[in-house]
Write a structure and sequence with these properties.
The protein is mainly alpha-helical. Helix content is about 45%, strand content about 10%. It is built from twelve helices and seven strands. The longest helix has 27 residues, at about 40-65. The radius of gyration is 22 Å and the shape is globular. It starts with 8 loop residues before the first helix and ends in a 5-residue tail after the last helix.
Amino acid sequence: MPKSLFVDPAETLAPGKITFKDIPVNAYNKTIAEERGRYSDDDLVRIYRDITVLREFESMLSLIKTQGVYNGIETTYPGPAHLSVGQEAAAVGQAYLLDQNDFSFGSHRSHSEILAKALSCIHKLSEQELMTIMEGFLDGSALRATEKLGPVSDVKELAIRFILYGTLSEIFARETGFHKGMGGSMHAFFLPFGIYPNNAIVGGSAAIATGAALFKKVNGKQGIVVCNSGDGSMARGPVWEAMNFAAMDQFHTLWESHNGGMPILYNVFNNSYGMGDQTRGETMGYD
């Protein structure tokens, strides 16, 4: 702990005021025409495809949970189903530029983030890299289970089926899940794609993700860390502690070889609800 810093009473007790920079809110205002100049038709089609995959996945779980049937197949799911219907575009947009070197930590409502990041990685990796990952994961047992579902056109399609089947199996606590069903809906993860465990505790990933970002910083690792949470997490002290830690000025002055801020993005999905209650009505200081 520092003991040699000079504290000048004249400076410390001098009158003044604290000022802040303006914080932009809802600043995005691009038109479709402007965006079409930045992305190809193939890019836009893939983005839309990923969004529809996420929506269908969550809609399927909703139907099974509430009606016990999907596409004529009757089944039950007694486990938790914290869905993110309506937030698919935010998850896909976040994952669009991320790859396997970027770490993603989620919340109890993170099916879409898992799938979006997986789909982004599948697009960026070569077929050989994908086969190496699938063949090496759980000694290839998850891949063999996926291959039994029928033929596919290429390795990329196989990888998409692999991630969808593995995630769904994990949610249903099946042996064929990515972690043999022991993680379930709120703790699913797939490390080869940089998808780290979600967290059933509201805001629980904030401190863990911050630690992962510190690991990347001091070890010179590639990529950033994304901490996903909802607006309900803004009532959680550990979330603010994590952000305060990441914002410490010492990161810019303490280590000459590691100057600069933490490689972390705190992403808050503001859907106006924390679990089943409105954040605005129960969290002091939210507005």
